[in-house]
Amino acid sequence: MPTRTVEYGVFLPVSSGGWIPSTTTPELDGSYAYNLEVTRLAERLGFDFTLSQAVWRGYAGPSHHFEVNLESLTTTAGLAAATERIGVWSTCNTATFHPAVLAKMIATADQISGGRTGLNIVAGGNRASETQMGLGASLSNPDKYRRAREWVTVCKLLWTEDGVDFDGEFFTLKDCQSKPKPAAGPPPMICAAVSDIGLRFTAEMLDGCLFEGTSRESMIEVGTRAKRIAEEVGSPLKTYCVFMVIPGETDADAQRRLDLYNAGRDTETMARMFAEHGNAAWDKAEFEARRAEWEKTTAVSTGTLCGSADTIAEQLADIIEAGRIDGAVFIMPDFIGDLAALGEAILPQLARHGLPGAALALD
């Protein structure tokens, strides 16, 4: 069977509630102690990297979803000092940190980790998180990608040049200096994108795109479209797909878990998330008028693979191959028990499908 390595990562639960807006999921407190435990377990199990998101504002609702959230860059620096092999990737919104400040922070984290850092940049993100700090209110999405293009350019210059002069639309630097440099040059940089404009920006400027889907078909479509756009611009772009995994001893056991989480869905939080990521203001009256609609919506949706270890491994292998996917980034309800099942029962099966993890392939 032909073999190609795949990067397997864990999207850390640095925000309370994890990734499912529900009152019936395992309790995740968003603490550093819990995320350190998860990261050390991921390292022992042979995962290639962890990734933490950048969240600045919760969604209220009965589940108090995301109301507690760690800052990504400092969390990653702590995890880097407490681990030895696993990659430690952080997230930064281009609105919240000046590129000269971020470049210095990443170069510092590079020393702490011994070259294991990576960076996920957010060009747009949750508008409510930005506007609460007086940021980004006047910028459209195309404006934000223009700003992100300058932001990335400045970071890369500061990581490679002795002094940087830059006169752009959004940033101006005069003989700006930044030492130390990352030991091996600019670290891997990715961006969450599904639109053509976002994928083209990512292919032209970065190393990888991060995306999610709500079905097998949507994940394959985005993965193959990203590769097509990358080929058009001559980029060796990597694709990283986010998968929600809900394992069980049997398919029926896993389905019972899924049904339980959906039964506790926090419709108020879900409506607020939908509005804010659509750049609209939360409207309580509108939510109440449409509550019956929201009650039909499931809490668990993002690329969900639910079943026994055999079932999930087969589904993953199918989507990774058909979607030309280079990396799988996992979220789950229980980041200890489910992560152990993923590392001990599912990743070995993926290796037998000809898709071993990059770290495990080196062992």
UniProtKB/TrEMBL annotation:
The keyword Glycoprotein does not apply. It holds the Pfam family Bac_luciferase. The keyword Ubl conjugation does not apply. InterPro entries: Luciferase-like_dom (IPR011251), Luciferase-like_sf (IPR036661), SsuD_RutA_monooxygenase (IPR050172). Keywords: Flavoprotein, FMN, Monooxygenase, Oxidoreductase. Residues 7-323 form the Luciferase-like domain. Transmembrane segments: none annotated. PANTHER family: ALKANESULFONATE MONOOXYGENASE (PTHR42847), ALKANESULFONATE MONOOXYGENASE-RELATED (PTHR42847:SF4). This is LLM class flavin-dependent oxidoreductase. It comes from Phytohabitans maris.
